Amino acid sequence: MGRSTPFYACQSCGAQSRQFFGRCPGCGSWNSLVEQSNPAADGRRRRAAPSPPVDGAAPRARRSEPIQTVGERPLQRLATGFPELDRVLGGGLVPGSLVLVGGDPGIGKSTLLLQSARALAEACSVLYVSAEESAQQVKLRWRRLGPEEGAEGASDQAGLQLLAETDLELVLQELEALRPAVAIIDSIQALHDAELSSAPGSVSQVRDCAAALQRLAKRQDTALLLVGHVTKEGMLAGPKVLEHLVDAVLTFEGDRFASHRLLRAVKNRFGATHELGVFEMRDRGLAEVTNPSELFLGGEGPCAGTATIVACEGTRPLLVDLQALVSTTSYASPRRTATGIGINRLHQILAVLEKHLGLPLSRFDCYLAVAGGLDVEEPAADLGVAAAVVASYRDLTLPAGTVLVGELGLGGQIRSVGQLELRLQESARLGFTRAVVPRGSGLAPVAAALGLELLEAGGVAEALVAALGVDPAAD
Length: 475
Ligand SMILES: Nc1ncnc2c1ncn2[C@@H]1O[C@H](COP(=O)(O)OP(=O)(O)OP(=O)(O)O)[C@@H](O)[C@H]1O
Ligand SMILES: [Mg+2]
Known about the structure:
The chain is of the alpha/beta class. It folds into three domains: 7-42, no CATH class; 77-290, Rossmann fold, CATH 3.40.50.300; 294-468, Ribosomal Protein S5, domain 2, CATH 3.30.230.10. The protein has twelve helices and 21 strands. Strands 6-5-7-8-4-9-10-11-12 form a nine-stranded mixed β-sheet, sandwiched between helices. Strand 7, helix 5 (203-220) and strand 8 form a beta-alpha-beta unit. Helix 4 packs parallel to helix 5 (203-220) and helix 9 crosses helix 12. The model is unreliable at 39-46 (pLDDT under 50).
């Protein structure tokens, strides 16, 4: 391949080919191949190869050791100033770890990390590398996010260093000189290694910059927080290897029209995944939402077509209102839309209701929405969806204080769900008094202690009769 011969690299898996393909032969993703030039200069920097063993020389000292003799260090996690972020990280930021924070443009990644930097700088040294914004811009945000002028703690912090730089070499030098306990790189896509000819943000640049930063950070025990962009499909931009390289991947998401933001761990080597942190974007930055259930409950009191479910995000139960609207269709095929729940799931539940309760739902439009813009993925919401749809169809209101939890099988049976005890506890804490749950939960004593009326059901018809107090299938 000549120096000027173009080649194509997959932006998703990093595979390279001389020919352009609409679909990557490596990972199968579509339209991910991007032309790169000068592959000769695109390789990793050459390093001195280990010298081959000389015949007759003494064998090299062993490098492995029995696991029992490996020294242990107590894991001293750093508090980020946001207990919600600490929880998603598994109890705080681990020294020497590499964390990738991804999210849509403008969702508040820089805000979250700058506020954390502020809190972390109270206890340890922090370097904030801004590769996207000037030092002045970061300073302005830092002022806005901090306490009011003249208030306690408004004085400038000595522990927070700011570097507005995009050149990887200069960033590495600064990291080596300062040896901070925490370094924040905003963002990894904006950094570039001058030794590579490809553009900043390309696969080889992102991979090389992240690997170089990781080597240095592990050596000097610096915890690294990297901001990562997401593609328009919502995936983290850059090669998949970046996600393998880091210790934790957090995604920051939210509805552009709502002020709350959700932080999730997609991968975590130091804690559980699928933990959820809830924040609210305010004028003076992000604030934690300590009681997120209130955010996702309608608050207007019971009305027709509304049901409350208990969704579980990681170890955190969330009470969420679902609303359904069922009305006679004026189209050849009825309209079905779902916000916050997969449309296929709604189709499936409607089919089960039609078949097992005999409701003629195929002649009705059906709209379903989850309050507060939350995405509920778990099947435990099925029974709630069914109750909301049937309540709207029959123009019924569920008795106040009722929650529903259960997965709906295609045969109309209610399947058990995980973490039911946790869900009941949260329901009782928020003042709910009746819970419709799958049969055989064995939680009657727990419910009695919590003051909850436990209604167990084995099938969808039985569950809806218990929830609504009337038989929805009766004409
Ligand atoms: N002066 C301001 N007053 C109130 N809110 C602001 C102000 N400036 C920014 N914001 C809020 O902060 C959000 C942007 O946050 P931030 O810059 O941290 O996002 P980001 O995820 O880092 O974006 P990018 O991907 O562009 O780097 C805006 O959407 C807005 O809601
Ligand atoms: Mg930013």
